[in-house]
TrEMBL record, chain A:
Residues 23-57 are annotated as: Disordered. Residues 1-23 form the signal peptide. Keywords: Signal, Transport. This is ABC transporter substrate-binding protein. Belongs to the bacterial solute-binding protein 1 family. It comes from Paenibacillus soyae. It holds the Pfam family SBP_bac_1. It comes from the Bacteria.
TrEMBL record, chain B:
It comes from Paenibacillus soyae. It comes from the Bacteria. Signal peptide: none annotated. One of its GO terms (cellular component) is plasma membrane. It is a multi-pass membrane protein. Belongs to the binding-protein-dependent transport system permease family. This is Sugar ABC transporter permease.
TrEMBL record, chain C:
This is Carbohydrate ABC transporter permease. Keywords: Cell membrane, Membrane, Sugar transport, Transmembrane, Transmembrane helix, Transport. It is found in: Cell membrane. The keyword DNA damage does not apply.
Length: 454, 338, 286
């Protein structure tokens, strides 16, 4: 009895203590602020004074919701940039909320319920849905900033960093957000493996990919692998190369099942069935849970992986400092669309300012600061691609830059198959089985057709 | 279950305690008010609103009722036209029926072993209960990143060292095996809870029964089917009810076993979460459909009701005719209120 | 202890017949040790060693732990989980016990209806409640505050608590209240002074169940704890795992798993018999 009483006492004491310790939960929620301030017109903000010391009026706190986690290299870079900002402008405080990739689920509810957010990474998954929360940055990007050496964001940024946000959100009026860390969807490969296999030039056609894979296999490498998370990319993109993106989007939306009976789908399935039979896919490809497959590339077991330019950062612990990365665009297929030369899925991470922020001037200053030469260098150090016209490229991505420069037609990841989230998992699963040699091309077509039929 | 919670033999001394004081009403109201308020605001209102919501097109979860558009049963039509949702229903049925049967049978077996007179009973019981107190996230990480891993995983290494190369090459996390793997992990994590309840129930059965049976020459198996099973009927039912409630809310294992929603692991709750808050994978915008999410809630609710009706039909309460047995059954039933 | 091992021949035979049972238990034990043990070893190795299956080849790497502890707000996560769990325990008892007492011992109009309602509520799935609750949280500007999860964890556990405690109160003798009444004790006072302490075994058992449930809760925390300052241990660990995987730091990921798992594990080793005893024994005494 006494023991139980003691336990009860401990429990209640613990409650009192914890309540006392965490007793100010409402501090983080000044909803009055969020509601009372009307969207401050950016034009009334200091657009003059291109020179001189940082303005003394730059005071206060900014809350920044980011898609990064604090322990990722990219997150660490952000933490450093925020610290540098606070050091440069005493009296300011940047509070970063490390939302991780779940930001694409948590941000809108948080904005809708009036949580304090001044700046946020605008997740592309929301499309134009957050338009009403994004301050029009047209004036801010034209405004000169000291941290940019008296230039404006328009002057220093790659043009695509201003264009891509409009594309990704489909909001063409004004400037909804500013991009950073541009990315491309490419075949990333191990240069050492290609050299050992005697491959002199990166594959441009499916035929050349076939030949390169054969050489890699002969040299003792597993030519290609992928993870469950990206299975629909390497596959969907083939269909896109074959029939074009609009066709794939129609295919994904099909509810009759007939469209999946199109000869093109069988041709696509045959191509991968052929690769599977030739043993070009790693033996574990059927059971790979992200990031097992990409780790295999980093460890040197597998040569190629179709992914984003951010891949080297994710596997750098296994790859080690000497790993050399190469990249090539998804090859063209016979009688296809000829995309390999200049078209690829591409995009950028976006930063937006909340239209309800109380301190637009400070938010604008922070936005400029993150694109200053020194911040950009810090991001590049973390393996992110530069957003500046005259920025440097991360050493491990040096060979990737030329591919970047060639791309001027922007496509969707997964070839457009992602446009229907209902069919995407079915497609992924069946493709994994196809690549693992568990089902035939015909079975793939049958499975897809019957799943699509409503 | 409903009538069982407050069995009729509870000695409520009504006459004495009724309306003696004028303040009695006030007292009762003040004692009941917080619970009733909680019932109204946290349960009744949301349930009603979700029911209503399932008949509307609602774009976002925080939208006011003003902006809802009435669409009748369209949301349900959407659900039944979706291969993904249908798969989530098959999955949950499998989790409930097959998973439930296997997990409860193993739990019973372990409970019988633990109470069979083995040494260090408390240690074994704690050991089996241990996974239940570990965070699901930690457990799933252990399973997916180690046990099932196809490069350095536990099963792969063990089978390899035993020379069973075909078993070593088994892809635990491939689409066709992922569901099985997930259920193994789920069983490991949840069995301890049921073992605890069942073992307590078996302990509550008088030893006289077993001794009498032993004199008649009954073996372990006969004892189990003749004595343990019938007397634990109510506890089994409680385990099934608890398991069903857990199965209907199956979510954590699904999301933690899959990077993004996939057929092998999708459950209705995952489907709802996706259609209400957005699909995390890919870079393409897909419209949110909160009304469909609400419809999923209604579907699960209907399933819960059906399951409960089915259980009441299959295992009606208080069927004990033998008055001597009744007190026993009552004791073991109470033991199961864990 | 010694005496326990001195068994006579008959006992030996009895134990021998339990061999299959022992084998099953032993299998479970070995599996658990390997599973958890490997994770601990991996957390002390490097990522490369994990992938090449040569754990600890280059000695112990405690820096994995330093990295996890330094970079993540583990303290905050643990404090939050403790706050949510403890307040859920106390809150549900404060709301549930009085209601259970009145419902199980007093006769009034609508008692049966209320009783049945609370039992029914226990089976209402969370998915049915979550959307309107989210809307309400936004309406009352509770999102982003720990108070929100405290309220939710309390209220959602009330029906079960009433159900659980009713049995305890109904088994207490009525003579106690009668005596209290004669002494001029008001019913409320009689409850808090006499009945509530008598139901303590049940209340402790209930607290343990609620504590474990809330500590490990995942769904509500995932949806409502959208800020670092609100995260529970479960969600915090998920963030650790996710970020370690994005940065390819698997050794760090396993270190995170161990850091989160170890305190609960150690506490369980010391308290397991008490927990088990209370949960089962407490319920049996009813």
């Amino acid at each position: 009895m006494s023991k139980k009483r003691r336990l009860a006492m401990i429990l209640s004491t613990a409650l009192i203590l914890t309540v006392a310790a965490c007793g100010s939960p409402s501090n983080s929620n000044p909803n009055s602020n969020a509601n009372s301030s009307s969207p401050a017109p950016a034009s009334s903000e200091p657009s003059s004074e291109p020179s001189g010391e940082p303005e003394p009026s730059l005071q206060g706190e900014l809350v920044f919701w980011t898609m990064w986690n604090d322990t990722e290299p990219q997150g660490e870079a952000w933490a450093d940039v925020a610290k540098a900002f606070e050091a440069k402008y005493p009296g300011t405080k940047i509070t970063i909320n490390w939302s991780g990739r779940d930001l694409s689920k948590t941000l809108k509810p948080a904005l809708e319920s009036g949580q304090r957010i001044d700046i946020f990474d605008y997740p592309t998954q929301y499309g134009g849905q957050l338009g009403s929360y994004a301050l029009d940055l047209s004036d801010i990007i034209a405004q000169p900033f000291d941290v940019l050496g008296g230039k404006s964001l328009t002057d220093v940024l790659l043009p695509s960093m201003l264009e891509t946000p409009k594309k990704q959100t489909d909001i063409w009026d004004g400037q909804v957000a500013v991009g950073y860390k541009p990315w491309l969807n490419l075949f990333m490969y191990n240069v050492k493996a290609f050299e050992e296999a005697g491959i002199t030039s990166a594959p441009k056609t499916w035929q050349e990919l076939d030949e390169a894979s054969a050489k890699l296999k002969a040299a003792g490498y597993s030519p290609i692998t992928f993870d469950d998370a990206y299975a629909h990319w390497i596959s969907g993109t083939y269909l896109q190369r074959l029939k074009g993106q609009d066709w794939v989007i129609e295919l994904a939306a099909d509810t009759t099942g007939d469209k999946w009976r199109d000869p093109a789908v069988l041709e696509f399935a045959k191509a991968f069935e052929d690769f599977a039979k030739k043993g070009y896919f790693d033996a574990n490809v059927g059971g790979n849970k992200w990031p097992s497959g990409q780790m295999d590339v980093g460890s040197g077991k597998v040569a190629m992986y179709f992914n984003l330019t951010g891949l080297p950062v994710e596997v750098k612990d296994v790859a080690g400092p000497d790993f050399k990365w190469g990249a090539f665009n998804y090859p063209d297929v016979t009688d296809g669309q000829n995309f390999a030369a200049n078209a690829a899925a591409a995009g950028a991470t976006m930063t937006a300012i909340n239209s309800k922020t109380e301190n637009t001037a400070l938010a604008a200053e922070f936005l400029a600061f993150m694109h200053s030469a020194e911040s950009d260098a810090r991001f590049v150090e973390a393996g992110m691609t530069t957003s500046l016209k005259d920025g440097n490229w991360p050493a491990e991505l040096a060979d990737v830059k030329p591919v970047f420069d060639d791309i001027n037609v922007i496509l969707q990841t997964g070839g457009g198959i992602e446009s229907n989230p209902e069919i995407k998992p079915v497609f992924s699963e069946n493709f994994i089985k196809l690549a693992a040699g568990q089902i035939s091309a015909e079975e793939f077509v049958d499975n897809m057709a019957s799943a699509a039929k409503q | 279950m409903e009538s069982e919670a407050f069995p009729s033999y509870i000695p409520v001394r009504r006459k004495e305690i009724t309306m003696r004081h004028k303040g009695r009403n006030l007292f009762m109201i003040s004692f009941l008010a917080p619970a009733v308020l909680c019932f109204l605001f946290i349960f009744l209102y949301p349930t009603a609103r979700t029911l209503l919501m399932s008949l509307f097109y609602v774009e976002f979860v925080t939208d006011d009722m003003k902006s809802w558009t009435f669409i009748g049963l369209d949301n349900f039509e959407t659900l039944f036209g979706s291969a993904l949702f249908l798969r989530s229903m098959t999955n949950i049925l499998k989790i409930w029926l097959i998973g439930g049967a296997v997990i409860l049978v193993i739990s019973t077996l372990l409970a019988v072993i633990i109470t069979s007179g083995v040494k260090f009973k408390n240690f074994w019981r704690s050991l089996i209960y241990l996974p239940h107190i570990i965070s699901v996230v930690a457990l799933v990480t252990m399973w997916t990143q180690y046990a099932f891993n196809n490069q350095y995983g536990l099963f792969k290494t063990v089978f390899q060292s035993l020379g069973l190369s075909s078993l070593a090459a088994f892809q635990w996390t491939a689409p066709e095996n992922l569901f099985l793997s997930m259920m193994i992990a789920y069983a490991y994590g949840s069995i301890g809870f049921y073992v605890l309840i069942l073992a307590a129930g078996i302990d509550g059965i008088s030893k006289d029964y077993y001794e009498a049976a032993e004199i008649e020459g009954a073996n372990q198996i006969a004892k189990f089917f003749r004595i343990t099973m019938p007397l634990l009927k109510d506890i089994f039912k409680r385990c099934i009810v608890l398991y069903s409630a857990g199965a209907m809310g199956f979510f954590a294992y699904s999301t933690l076993f899959s990077f993004s929603t996939e057929l092998a692991t999708v459950t209705p709750l995952v489907y709802m979460y996706d259609s209400v808050f957005g699909r995390a994978s890919g870079n393409v915008t897909t419209p949110l459909n909160v009304g469909a999410g609400a419809a999923v809630g209604v579907m699960i609710m209907i399933m819960v009701v059906l399951v409960n009706l089915l259980l009441d039909r299959l295992m009606p309460n208080d069927v004990d005719i033998n008055p001597n047995k009744k007190s026993l059954a009552r004791r073991s039933r109470n033991a199961g209120q864990v | 202890m010694q005496a326990k091992f001195k068994m006579n021949k008959r006992e030996w035979i009895a134990q021998l017949r339990l061999t299959p049972g022992y084998l099953v238990l032993l299998f479970w034990l070995v599996f658990s040790i390997v599973l958890i043990g490997w994770i601990i070893l991996a957390s002390l190795s490097t990522t490369k060693e994990v992938f090449s299956n040569n754990l600890l080849e280059s000695g112990f790497h405690f820096d994995n732990y330093i990295r996890v502890m330094e970079k993540h707000n583990l303290g905050v996560y643990f404090m939050n989980s403790a706050l949510y769990s403890v307040s859920a325990c106390i809150g549900t008892v404060l709301i549930g016990a009085p209601a259970a007492y009145v419902l199980s011992r007093f006769q009034f109009k609508g008692r049966k209806l209320l009783n049945n309602t609370f039992v029914l509520l226990m089976s209402v799935p969370v998915v049915m409640l979550i959307l309107p609750l989210f809307k309400m949280a936004a309406q009352f500007s509770l999102t982003g505050s720990q108070l929100l999860l405290i309220i939710l964890y309390i209220c959602l556990n009330v029906p079960f608590s009433i159900f659980f405690l009713s049995g305890f109160f109904s088994s207490l003798p009525t003579a106690l209240e009668e005596a209290a009444e004669i002494d001029g004790c008001s019913p409320a006072k009689a409850f808090w002074r006499i009945m509530f302490p008598l139901a303590q075994p049940g209340i402790v058992a209930l607290c343990i169940i609620n504590f474990i449930n809330v500590w490990n809760e995942y769904f509500m925390a995932l949806i409502f704890a959208n800020q670092t300052s609100m995260r529970t241990v479960s969600i915090g660990l998920q963030v650790i795992v996710q970020s370690m995987r994005y940065s390819g730091d698997w050794a760090g990921m396993f270190a995170g798993v161990v850091v989160v798992f170890l305190p609960t594990f150690i506490l369980f080793i010391f308290l397991s018999n008490k927990i088990m005893g209370n949960m089962t024994g407490g319920a049996l005494k009813e």
